[in-house]
Amino acid sequence: MARVTNAQPARRLMLVHAHPDDEVTGTGATMARYVAEGAQVTLVTCTLGEEGEIHVPSLAQLEAKQADQLGGWRVVELERACAALGVSDHRFLGGAGRYRDSGMMGLETNNHPRAFWQADLEEAARLCLEIMREVRPQVLITYDDNGFYGHPDHIQAHRVAMRAAELAEAEGFGPEKIYWTAMPLSVLEGGIEAFKGMDDNPFADVESVADLPFGHPDDEIAARVDGTDYYEQKVAAMRAHATQIPDNSWLYGIAGDFGGEFMGVEYFTIVKGERGEVSGPHKWESDLFSNVVTP
Ligand SMILES: CC(=O)N[C@H]1[C@@H](O[C@@H]2[C@H](O)[C@H](O)[C@@H](O)[C@H](O)[C@H]2O)O[C@H](CO)[C@@H](O)[C@@H]1O
Ligand SMILES: [Zn+2]
Predict the structure, then answer these.
(1) What's the average model confidence in pLDDT over 44-59?
(2) 69 partner at 20 to 30 Å CA-CA among 97, 158, 223, 271?
(3) Which ligand is nearest to the CA of 154?
(4) Which of 52, 25, 48, 44 is nearest to 214 (CA)?
(5) Which residues of the sequence carry a binding annotation for Zn(2+) (predicted)?
(6) ipTM score here?
């Protein structure tokens, strides 16, 4: 049984994401910050994103219904994004190509025999456990039980990560703290105002934040990680995912109009472990490793 070696950094963060590009949008600044601070950041991506859209016209024929090569291309996009963030430890769950992108909830692609949505949970969790046993992360990040916005692969990534953490706990090396990606309602409400008048307004049809499948009251948020110093790395990593994030994406609008204030700050709820120092009106933690005692 592998044990923490002297060669491993003192602080170790593991993230379990569903598709290439998820690592950037929800946790890119957090990853870049902890890498810069000397932590080991291990990214686990569960699928290759084969069923995604393609926003690069010259690559359109790679789509699943044609050449079905988008997954391979997104492997390269992910490598480039990790390089931009400074992340050197990336794994595909079960190895590249083990689990296939299931497509949006309810689509026929959910039933593909290799779809992650069809994965045997125990088997997939044990594959995740193997990485956890090697890395022994003190902090684990994944999605909430709705996968943040209800995508089947995100829901499955949550289930696999949480089951792996449970199995690791039983073997005596579970993560000390577990966080789920989140967004405060106050930030979403600010976004709705800020986007009015933008061409690519993601909130165009949204009357109220209550209409969104995600968002937490500010007091339910546990941690606000300030990665504003790394927002340029985050934007560079977003650009690496060109098939998923088009040049006219609202995400770049935010980056342009608000800089690191929005793109460089990422939020989490906590579902395991004791928070360390908290501050501000909503008592948010600023360091995911605060209060960690596990060597
Ligand atoms: C951020 C994320 O999880 N993206 C997934 C998602 O992509 C969506 C999908 O292409 C949908 O058809 C679009 O309308 C929507 O705008 C996209 O965000 O689902 C894809 C298929 O499972 C997945 O490849 C992509 O990474
Ligand atoms: Zn995703």
Answers:
(1) 98
(2) 158
(3) 2
(4) 25
(5) 19, 22, 154
(6) 0.99
Mutate to test the pocket of ligand 1, among 16, 17, 19 (most ligand atoms within 8 A of CB): 19
Indicate the pTM of the whole model: 0.96
φ, ψ for residue 89, nearest 5 deg: -110, 95
Closest CA to 35 of 84, 79, 80, 74: 84
Beta-carbon-side half-sphere exposure of residue 15 (alpha carbons within 13 Å)? 31
> Are 128 and 174 a contacting pair, CB within 8 Å?
no
Between CA 220 and CA 1 the distance in angstroms is: 37
Residue corresponding to tokens 């592998």: 2
Give residue-wise pLDDT tens across range 34-43. 999 999 999 9
C-alpha 116 to ligand 2 mean position (Å): 12
Closest residue (by CA) to atom 16 of ligand 1?
A: 53
> What residue owns the CA closest to ligand 1's atom 1?
22
| Ligand 1 neighbour 104 (Cβ under 6 A) | yes
Helix, strand, coil percentages, rounded to 5, for the chain: 40, 15, 45
| Banded model confidence at residue 4, pLDDT cuts 50, 70, 90 | low
Cβ proximity of 231 and 259 under 8 Å: yes
